[in-house]
Amino acid sequence: MTSPQTPASARPLGVAAIGYAFMGQAHSHAWRTVANHFDVPAFEQKVLVGRHGEAVAAAAQKYGWSESATDWRAVLERDDIDIVDICAPGWLHAEIATAALAAGKHVLVEKPLANSLAESQKMVRAAQAARTAGVRSMVGFNYRRLPALALARQLIAEGRLGSIRQVRASYLQDWLVDGESPMTWRLRKETAGSGALGDIASHAVDQVQFLLGDTVTSVSGTLHTFVTERPGPGGPEAVTVDDAAWATLSLAGGAVASVDVSRVALGQKNALRLEVYGTTGSITFNLESPNELYFLDGTEPVELQGFRRILVTEPGHPYVSGWWPQGHVLGWEHSFTHQIRDFLLAVAGGTDPSPSFEEGLGVQRVLAAIEASAAAGGATTLVEPVPVAEPGGRAASPASASRPGSALVEAAETDSHSSIPSRS
Amino acid sequence: MTSPQTPASARPLGVAAIGYAFMGQAHSHAWRTVANHFDVPAFEQKVLVGRHGEAVAAAAQKYGWSESATDWRAVLERDDIDIVDICAPGWLHAEIATAALAAGKHVLVEKPLANSLAESQKMVRAAQAARTAGVRSMVGFNYRRLPALALARQLIAEGRLGSIRQVRASYLQDWLVDGESPMTWRLRKETAGSGALGDIASHAVDQVQFLLGDTVTSVSGTLHTFVTERPGPGGPEAVTVDDAAWATLSLAGGAVASVDVSRVALGQKNALRLEVYGTTGSITFNLESPNELYFLDGTEPVELQGFRRILVTEPGHPYVSGWWPQGHVLGWEHSFTHQIRDFLLAVAGGTDPSPSFEEGLGVQRVLAAIEASAAAGGATTLVEPVPVAEPGGRAASPASASRPGSALVEAAETDSHSSIPSRS
Amino acid sequence: MTSPQTPASARPLGVAAIGYAFMGQAHSHAWRTVANHFDVPAFEQKVLVGRHGEAVAAAAQKYGWSESATDWRAVLERDDIDIVDICAPGWLHAEIATAALAAGKHVLVEKPLANSLAESQKMVRAAQAARTAGVRSMVGFNYRRLPALALARQLIAEGRLGSIRQVRASYLQDWLVDGESPMTWRLRKETAGSGALGDIASHAVDQVQFLLGDTVTSVSGTLHTFVTERPGPGGPEAVTVDDAAWATLSLAGGAVASVDVSRVALGQKNALRLEVYGTTGSITFNLESPNELYFLDGTEPVELQGFRRILVTEPGHPYVSGWWPQGHVLGWEHSFTHQIRDFLLAVAGGTDPSPSFEEGLGVQRVLAAIEASAAAGGATTLVEPVPVAEPGGRAASPASASRPGSALVEAAETDSHSSIPSRS
Amino acid sequence: MTSPQTPASARPLGVAAIGYAFMGQAHSHAWRTVANHFDVPAFEQKVLVGRHGEAVAAAAQKYGWSESATDWRAVLERDDIDIVDICAPGWLHAEIATAALAAGKHVLVEKPLANSLAESQKMVRAAQAARTAGVRSMVGFNYRRLPALALARQLIAEGRLGSIRQVRASYLQDWLVDGESPMTWRLRKETAGSGALGDIASHAVDQVQFLLGDTVTSVSGTLHTFVTERPGPGGPEAVTVDDAAWATLSLAGGAVASVDVSRVALGQKNALRLEVYGTTGSITFNLESPNELYFLDGTEPVELQGFRRILVTEPGHPYVSGWWPQGHVLGWEHSFTHQIRDFLLAVAGGTDPSPSFEEGLGVQRVLAAIEASAAAGGATTLVEPVPVAEPGGRAASPASASRPGSALVEAAETDSHSSIPSRS
Questions:
Q1: Are residues C294 and C157 in the same domain?
Q2: D260 contacts in B (CB within 8 Å)?
Q3: Are D170 and D273 in contact (CB under 8 A)?
Q4: What is the ipTM metric for this complex?
Q5: Taking residues A291-308, what's their average pLDDT?
Q6: Partners of A381 in the beta sheet?
Q7: Mutate to test the interface with C, among A155, A259, A268, A277 (most CBs of C within 10 A)
Q8: Domain of life, per the record (chains A, B, C, D) (predicted)?
Q9: Residues B37-57: pLDDT tens digits?
Q10: Closest to C264 measured CA to CA, from B367, B25, A280, D391
């Protein structure tokens, strides 16, 4: 195990990113712009890594990286690289992340943590070992850093909703609605692991645990494939993953959440919708209108109660002070910029960022339980708890695993918008 | 001048309605159902009056009236008729209403008060004279009795919005969007008086004065006819009324209101939209969703401010306790039921209902000023004040003319929902 | 078995209603107004029946019934009664309905059909027997008669949505959100049968089957009680019914529906929300805005696709021609008026109205399966099929049981709005 | 007059930006990211210019400029600068822009074109002269480049709305709602020129002309200052600009538009709302939800008509192909990125970008007419036409002045989304 190399104070942090497809582009955009908007430690976009030399060179040029490379192992050996941002496909996460951590590089890895539980567990062990040496790791559930959802978390953490009873989380898309759209690797179990479940239910499950600061303990689930066969390269081919999933989740604190995801919900483009119902307040959100949070204050006289549309663009809202004046809305990509900002602050500040690999594994375990429940006809299935590091591991933080939102709330505090002022 | 005849305590009030077209049907429906939902003095649907004997007899039968008649003058002479509800076309309002008041009948007249200012003034004089004898009169701006708008008035009267600065009032419809739809009496100045201005801007102007409890003092206006010619019985015929109107209104208390109405706003079906902006709160409303009032409390921390959707169906909301449990919404027609309820309570209680004929004339004067301003190319035009009854006229109430909402607020108080409880 | 007595042509149909609480008031309102708006066979509001003589007499007077009575059995013996409208509590449905049918009275019964499956089955047998004698029966799933949902059914039946894949049905209320609100009979299993499941999931399940014209064949369900103890007359008392329920339903035609109901969803007042996703179109609806149907036409170019808000108030929309011009919205209660209208037309026309008792039993069977699945930890549970009358039973109509919407579509056809015109 | 210096093919275009406040930051962000998302000619962020050496150096470092400078005149003399982006305050626009054009630099200037008509006219003359030498100029009405509004323009240009009758344009903000917020240079006529009129009505007026491809010919206007005195450095000071404005605009093609802007509309943060009503279609938009365009197709059967919410995030929508997959929304700032993209393409392609300085002057003239009308009590006031270059000026393009949207539509065409596919 190598310790993190050059301290941030001595020279800019060197960053390598691996992958330049959709997620690679989104992460690159964030690295490219974060310092224009936030006070972050100095860093350099050193190298973009990909499999195809020419293509990755063009991408590096386009996205603002100084160089490109095709051998990620070689990059991990470089002394001028302090941070590795893994945007490669899920099946490569474990191998790259464990090697990078072993090399003493701080690691940010796109969600899902990995395609299998075994790999995820291996990654958690690697992260726990690295953490004792001050090496940081984080999984990229970027929606936690949308101002509206960060505000939602704050309101819940401050008790504005009272005790949470119910969550309704759904994530609806429609890009597979056409039964004639062709077979891809995303629709084969051996390459994709699962379908809508792993791809989008993962976000929904993470939000449930993040918003409530709580942990799912058991589930009942159903999976379904509406289009069972699609045109493949050699004729019709069976689709072997789900294109929709439903589950009911029980949380340790007593709340119940429903999760409902689909890739064939015609007309829904990217509708991660969240509804949280507490004893004294409620919240709703839709990712298609990401600057809006709807909040109902149940302590008002009932004749004045109603869901209010908060346009989350005030300077006092999470992350917004880095951007534009009130009413000038942000987009989807800004969640990645905020993620990089918090990751850099954690690396420089010597703290463990959230969501940790443990939290990423926690989501994977819930998804695995849903899959197992579905296979058993919906029977209630327990979620295996996430392992906590041994006592010896000083930096191991059971708290951060059990309170997924804590790091953000703390980060937010340093950002001087720790809490919404009370009514005067 | 005859005094109102039999006291309400002795026998049920006898009601005659004149007119059985659209408005006649709406009023009949209200008479038919009001006692099923509200505690009102006993009354009987005695007679429906119309020009065509057979048709009015069928309508009387259908809408629940005991008899029908074709001669309204004869009906006014009947001792068993205490109340006359005038739903006849506007050009008949003045003649019937003054005769009915002179005969000691309480009068409810559909808006607009009359087609001309001269007629309206005559009606006001008749109402003022009758009032001294305890005869009641009211003009039917029914939207004041929608629970959501009655609630809006309460919130403003209670100071929840602070001092009002701006109102945006528009009323958009689209039933004349087709340039080939034929000529009708509504599109000829000699029969209709005006177009969108008199028909729908009247509601918008009444709401501005009602919600603010204030009076328009000057205006700048524009009228326009988009479809200048339509198929008539003998070939193309010129449209001689406006199909859209715009105006800026100055109110005595310092607020400025914009009014914007159209019959060719394709896709808007019945969109009376109101936005009221005060120093500490704001309100918006749309008649197409009449159970919803949007309210923003500007005294909250700015990070939590937002327009909240109040579903105005709580028992504590104006008029709602007569109906269904929370969340079971009312429709357009209920405004007429509430209007009848308040009118009956005023008649039985010996108080003057609002909106009075003076208030109806007040709206007409604003419309006349808009028309005059438009004719003068938009030049600012003063609104002539509404005459107040002579000092001798005991019941004359300048206050009710200048505070259009007062009667409703008082009526509401008797209904045990005088005010929204304060925050505890 | 008595045949229906006097033919409708001979004298007005005599109607008796049993019950005068919330539902009794809603039905009375519908009887009181239906003939003012629709061409229906002549009828008379003869008698209102209730347990408490004085109270039912007052209610009869208020709601427009000629007389009142306390003994429903005596009323069933009257020759002048042709129709019995049962608004009594669920535990009385079976006894009254079977007796009324045996007496040759046409029966409309509020949903749910009965509190137990055994009673429901008995009622179905009674209805099947009566049907052979021309005696009609119907269960009151009134939301089928909201214009927006009737339009939704039309669009689906006409194939506008293609093949339906997914339905999301939820019904959220909040009247039990306060943990201190007292114990009532509705919260005890012995009196209420179930909680949110029977009360509001029944509507959601009926809509799923109605809109798709399909039948649920198996379910996976979860029930939960968030507030397990409430103040009772003699101290804290255990709540023995669910206050929220979740289920995944498989339909015979291959669609999957999720159902999600709650009485503690703070801020949701009466939110029956429906989302139907097909291969070429989608629909959404919310009962809190019942005049609006959202429709997405997936055959448009994707750049122009979007959920359009149809304000269902055009004369060509189901039921609307009986009411007001476009844009003048209807309320919750109108669904009952339309229900009475269709019931009267069926009675007079000699056809069987829908939803039949079989359809009511069908909903009960689905709810029973959800309850059984929940008790088994969510395990997939088959829904027992609804029995169809023997071949001898001439009027028995398996078709109407399997195609729940057919009768309405036919009724709608007679109403001259059988189908939305195609694009020209 | 100098010709543009080095051809774009020889070396990257050198860019200088002047100003680093709010608009400077927004433009810098756009320069920083445009090449990561769009194929644009090579360029370099050479130098950022500001008055305060230290501050501008920090800003240059933060926003990605290679150097900083304090003397813009010296920068104009540099041979390596091809493009000058003017984000300095309005009173400096004319001086810098005319000097830059004279030096052969392509100029992009923030809106408004200038603070006075005299300056604006001077700038137009300079632009017309420079245009003959191939030097390009553009004014930054960035909202034209929001995908939703670019799509709106396309739909209107393609005739989807038929002939436009009415536009309702409003721009509501609330940052001056607090009467105690202090005096600033923006509230003094001598420094700001005007208040809400110049600042936000300018956007509304530009959109009216852009969307319709038409020109305002006369106006009737009203200005108002609600808070007439604010705390100044030496005690209370008079506010000498408007904080709200209203106007009715007549367009050459026969349409009428209303414009309504305010800085005290409590709860409205950045609500540029547009409603366009045509004979066969309508459109609405709100800048607070900038990814959504609402479109009503009036050629559908009326029973199916409704405003559809188009989420303008499809690859086929204007500008979107440079960004993320469908449903991943963009923010306010992207309009600037698209503006830079189109400006660069015009510079490299040798075409004149739109909006031209003539179009900027056109907006100023409308605002001046509103001010004059308001001063005359609302009297109808003609808008002075914008001068067109002399015949000798080869590149002078009266067409682009009279058809404000044409350049964008053409630019869009090169982007392979020239038009929305017709229905098949």
A1: yes
A2: 168, 258
A3: yes
A4: 0.91
A5: 98
A6: A219
A7: A277
A8: Bacteria
A9: 999 999 999 999 999 999 999
A10: A280
